[in-house]
Write a structure and sequence with these properties.
By secondary structure, this protein is α+β, with helices and mostly antiparallel strands. It has one domain: Alpha-Beta Plaits, CATH 3.30.70. It has 2 helices and 3 strands, in the order E-H-E-E-H. A 3-stranded antiparallel β-sheet has the order 1-3-2. The longest helix is centred in the first third of the chain and has 13 residues. The radius of gyration is 18 Å and the shape is elongated. About 5% of the residues have low confidence.
Length: 95
């Protein structure tokens, strides 16, 4: 069985941005992991400076696609996506 090789595709400041990008990648079918070095996840989380850096990792075979998605995100190409929610179901007629 071959072991998955992970590759860093981005590094961002803070958990919030990292979680947003992980969600974007996963919504596009790419598995993503977050890695934060240092004391960033200790009892007192650090959200500024070099200790707040979070790396976004994806399987190596998906890294090119992940980078393209992130490039679209950073360039603003995803700003106009029409997020269609499923229509709400009407309650059955009770008449």
């Amino acid at each position: 069985m071959s072991e998955i090789q992970w590759e860093v595709v981005d590094e961002v400041a803070g958990d919030l941005q990292a979680e947003l990008l992980r969600g974007l990648l996963e919504a596009r079918g790419i598995e993503a992991w977050l890695s934060q070095e240092g004391i960033g996840h200790s009892v007192y989380p650090v959200t500024v400076g070099p200790l707040s850096k979070v790396q976004i990792l994806v399987p190596s075979e998906q890294s090119q696609t992940a980078r393209m998605i992130l490039e679209e995100y950073y360039s603003g190409k995803l700003d106009d996506i029409d997020l269609k929610l499923p229509p709400e179901e009407s309650p059955p007629d009770q008449g």
